[in-house]
Each structure stands twice: as structure tokens, then as C-alpha cells.
Amino acid sequence: MSEWFRMTLGDFVDLQRGHDLPSGRRVPGTVPVVGSGGITGWHNEAKVSGPGVTLGRAANLGVPTLVQGDFWPLNTTLYVTNFRGNSVRFVYHLFQVLDLGGFNSGSVQPMLNRNYIKSFPIRVPGRAEQAAIAEVLRSLDEKIAVNERIASTADALARTHYERERCGLVGQTERLDRLARVVVGGTPSRANPDFWNQGTVNWINSGKANEFRVTEPSELITEAGLAGSSVKMMPPGATLIGITGATMGQTSRLEITAGGSQNVAGVWSEDPALNDWLFYDIQARVADLTKHASGGAQQHINKKIITDLDCVVPDAPKLDEWHRTTAPLLARVAHALVENRTLATLRNALLPQLMSGRLRVKDADTAENAEGTVEEHV
Fold first, then answer.
1. Alpha carbon 173 to chain centroid distance?
2. How many helices (H) and strands (E) does the chain have?
3. CA-CA distance, 361 to 15, in Å (whole number)?
4. What 3-state DSSP class applies to 284?
């Protein structure tokens, strides 16, 4: 096994503040513009050759972004100007586990100052073990990315089949509450620990409506929390609709059994074919929901707006035919995302162990580029 070395962050890599690039000065192109939260836009000119790593400097303090190609780092970031022979991906993963949020040097706005973090103590292995660790984590990240592309492609194909079938339907509308069940949920009292502590019931908030598919809960509540609140349980296949504030009009598909908050509505049918059709039909009709929203600063879609939505549905034979084509695609989406949940759990468990040296990649001293096997090191 290679030796691990103690040093400071300033000895390990060089950091520099990013560069101004107001939106009005950006020219459409293929170069990513990277801010404190990741890629925020595109430009026709690069400021830095990739691959590279940025850190959130203003907001998201210390949160890293890995950029594979050339890029433009904004002044809301710090970026690595010299990796000093270290593995780029290892540097990225190291920043993932470092807690730099306490180095806030701003008085009004949070700010990460590179001079404040230069003396931050770290412990890192030699280049060969860096590469081996990075390869283990890279293989997991890339498999997750492949699954995301598979899910996105399968979903796009299913949507195309929906749109093609939908074009042939004229005047065949039905009010949504005559086709499916519509519920609005609730939130158990936060003041009652019996509703939350050691919960086993999946519960989701409205932020989940922003997700491609919901494969895990926001939090867990107890059976007492479920019974003592207006939370409604929803089955896999339900369409979720954000009905308040920032997520109003956002939709997602539920892939688990879960209850929802008062800021999310759920729609589902007992018929799997109709359930799948309604998922795409509701997505296509979001504008018809949001145009009836009420409220001032906090816009809201009430339940009646959803139940009154006129949906277009094929007759039973055509719906069954459409479903025979799309069901395998939707099953592929669900399979890819469930697998990603397992892979992400594994990666998140391995990350701090590998980056601290508590787990070691076998034969890292001689394997510059190998997935390797992981063994415990105490």
C-alpha cells in the first residue's frame, strides 16, 4: 500500500477566484459557464482548459463541480489552477468530503476566501492510489450517468408514442376526477416527536415534483403521524403535481408507495394503462392548471382545478394497444432509476471511507488505472 501524506490544502493544489461574465456579455456557444451551483449557462469562449474543478465561493460554499472540458468559471467560484500532478477526479472527490462551510469570510453574503482555506489540513495518498480511488468512484458515477441516459431515452420514446396517439383523438374528453382519484396530502405536526421519530412510512414534500421520477422519500413518518394527519398514501404509478409556490405545475411520477405533503397532489387510477396515459396527459396540460392558480406572492393550484381538468383518453382497445408499446419503456425507466438508487448508496458509503484511507484499493501502488477491489484498512 502507498503511503498517505499530511499536508495543507494550499500545498496540494492552487486555487483562484473565477472571472466575471454577465449574462449580457455571453455569446451562445458550447462552453459551460460554471457558477457556485454548477453549470449555469453557455458561452463561445473558454477561460480555463479542462478538465477542471470549481468550488462554490458565494453560496454553496466549498461544494465542488467537476468539469470534463474547457470552461468559464464565474466569480462566484474558486477554481483549481494547478493540480500539482494530482488526479483531477481525486481532487474533486476530496473536496466532496472536506467541510469548508465554516470558512465563511463574508459579513452579509456568505463567501469562501481561498486564503482562509490554504492552511486547511488534509491527508492524501500518492498519485497511484489517487488514480485507483478515482477509478472506483468514476466507474460508479459513469454507470449512474448511463442509467440516467437510458431512463431519459425510454421516457422520451414513451412520450413520443403518447403524442402520436394523442394527435388522432378529437373531442374524447373526460373530467379527471371521473377517470382517477385525486388527493392532496398533509404534514404531520413537527412538534409531535411520535409522528417523526423512528418512522417507517415514506413521506414526500413538494420538492419531489421537480424530480424526473420519485424513487425515495423526502423523510419518514410514523404510523401515528399518518393516522394523526391528513397525509394520503399514494401507490407507485401515481402522477405527482406540485401545487404551491416554486414547484407549482411541476410533475413527476411516483415509483414507490408514499404519502405527500399539503403542497403536492397525487393522481392515480386502478388501471395501469390509464395510469401511464394520465402521466403524460397531465404533463401536457400543465398550462391549463397553472392559468387558474390563485394567490398573491404564493400562487396555488387548488384541488378543484385538478379534478375539473378535461383529459383526452383513447377508447379501451386503443389504450391497451398504446400501453403494450409503452409499458416496457416505463418499466425500463423504473429499473434504471432503482438501480441508480442502489449505486448511489454504495458510492456515498464508499466515498468518505476511501477518501480517508479507512478503505484502501488493493494493489493501488501498481495499478494506475484499475477498478480494483476494496479492502478495509484500519
1. 35
2. 9, 22
3. 28
4. helix
How many Å apart are CA 113 and CA 106, to the nearest integer?
A: 9
What torsion, rounded to 10 degrees, do the Cα atoms 230, 234, 239, 243 define? 10
Same domain, 325 and 303: no
138 in the same domain as 193: no
- DSSP H stretches of helix in the chain: 9-12, 88-97, 114-117, 127-167, 223-227, 272-284, 286-290, 303-307, 316-356
Q: Outline where 168-315 has alpha helix (H).
A: 223-227, 272-284, 286-290, 303-307
Residue 273 lies in a domain: yes
pLDDT digits (tens, 9 = 90+) for 50-71: 999 999 998 788 899 999 999 9
Q: Are 95 and 54 in contact (CB under 8 A)?
A: no
Paired with 319 in beta bridges are none
Predicted pLDDT at 366:
40
CB-based contact 95:122 (threshold 8 Å): no
pTM of the model: 0.79
The span from the CA of 329 to the CA of 322, in Å, is 11
Domain that holds residue 244: 170-313
Which residue, among 148, 127, 165, 192, has the nearest Cα to 336 in the 3D structure? 148
